Amino acid sequence: MILGLYTWQWLFLAALVAGSGVAVWLVRQTIGRLIQWGLKRAGVESGKGLVRAVSRSLALGIVCEVVRFLLPWIGLAAAVTHTIEVWIDALAVVFIGIAAYRVVDLVCHSAVGHFLRHRSNGRDVAQTLAPLVASALKVVVMIVGLTVVLGILGVNVAAIITGLSIGGVALALAAQDTIKNLFGSVMILADQPFVVGDWVVLQDVEGVVQEIGFRSTRIRTFADSVVTLPNGRLADMTVDNLGLRSYRRYRTSIVLDHGTSVHDVIAFQDAIRNVILAHPLTVKSLDRINIAMTEISSLGFVITVAVFTDAHTMTDEPSFKNEINLGIADAAEKHAVHFAKQGDVVRA
Which terminal CB of the chain, N or C, has fewer other CB atoms within 10 Å? Predict the structure, then answer.
């Protein structure tokens, strides 16, 4: 005997360990193929890494239960066998909980997208709502898994829950800001002032919404930094959602020298109009093109130019402004008009 076990018991134990390794590999391969087949039938795209992780965790959980079933055959003492069985059961629940945790993201995104597919902005809403639903389900998975594991290990879960309920009032008082942020996230989801991917201006913050969480919203600025705003504070802010614009307006003011004749001013205005009409991104509707002498100042004749573009087609706004400005400068050169010596004004 070695450490209280006969040779045949050690051989059986070694065979059980080796067989478990082979069984995990076989079960993982089978489950992985089944998951990929099911995802393909459902038309859902998923990375191989997620499928591999889920199938591995499920395989480990299943093999743990098989080992538990075979454990009494080793012939250990009843008390030892019972203790090992309890820990194997707990370990199996942990592995299955890990699998459930990892598959939540895929299931939530697919399910939310399916329910919102009839909406015109269903994809955007799904990108916003899916992470929140996934976070809630992950918390539920962790709580349920932890409760089951503690119950298997003989911990009095009811006593723990009772203790938590007694301290609930103190916890609620300490978590006022968290509760406020949670309600703020609910308000954002209900009102939908923006979704993930929108370009927004929030007081002194401007950028693209990157993520909407339970506690805060992350906005990536155009300096490539990430600003995190608590949802409770965000719900009270005025939101300027530039991502919902149908058109983008470009406006500039040009000051001509007092020596410019009225005929030259009119000709210059017509030349600017031709530049705008010739540009492929401008809206050609006459009510969207405004060129007028709006002021006669001490500096000269002020001509205001306002033009609109389709917000969905213009992706590089600085490049567009550059092309329009170069066209205006070229028109001024061709018509021999001169800008005022002081006070060149450009507003956009």
Answer: N
Rounded CA separation 119/108 (Å): 17
54 class by beta-carbon count within 10 Å (0-12 exposed, 13-18 middle, 19+ buried): buried
Over residues 99-125, the pLDDT tens digits come to 888 877 667 656 655 555 545 444 555
Question: What CA–CA distance (Å, rounded) separates 102 from 106?
Answer: 8
> Parallel, antiparallel, or unpaired for β 216-221 and 247-256?
unpaired
- The backbone torsions φ and ψ at residue 234, rounded to the nearest 5 degrees and listed phi first, read -65, -35
Radius of gyration of the chain (CA): 34
* Whether the Cβ atoms of residue 241 and residue 193 lie closer than 8 Å to each other: yes
Percentage helix, strand, coil, to 5, in the chain? 60, 15, 25
Domain count, the chain: 3
For 266-305, how does the pLDDT look when each residue is reduced to its tens digit (9 = 90+)? 999 999 999 999 988 888 888 888 999 998 888 889 999 9
Q: Are residues 122 and 82 in the same domain?
A: yes
Query: What is the three-class DSSP state of 5?
Result: strand
Length of the chain: 348
Q: Are residues 156 and 260 in the same domain?
A: no
